[in-house]
Amino acid sequence: MNLFVEPFVNNIFMQRALIAGILVSISCGIVGTYVVLRGLAFIGDALAHGVLPGIAVAMLLGIPGIYGAALGAVVMIAGISLITRKSRLSSDTAIGLLFVGMLALGVVIVSRSNSFSGDIVRVLFGEILGIDNQAVIIQLIATLVIGVTAWICARPFLLLCFSPEQAQVAGFSAKLYHNIMLALIALAVIVSFQTVGTLLVFGMLLAPAGTGALIARRIEAMIAWAAGIGSISVYFGLLISYYFNLAAGSTIVLVAVTIFFVVLTAKNIQESRKQTVGQPNHG
Amino acid sequence: MANSSLPISKPSDVLVYARNLDIGYRNETIVANMAFELKRGQSLALVGVNGSGKSTLLKTLVGLLPPLRGELEVVGAQPGKTPRQIAYVSQFHTSGFILPLPAIDAVRMGRYADHGLLGQMGQEDEELVRESMQRMEIAYLADQSLRSLSGGQQQRVYIAQALAKRADLLVLDEPTGGLDAAGKELYQTAIQEELKRGASLVVATHDIQDAIACDIAMLLARKVVAYGIGREIITPDALLEAFGIVITLNEQNHRLTVVEREHGHGHGEDHEHR
Question: Do A281 and B80 touch (CB under 8 A)?
Answer without folding.
Answer: no
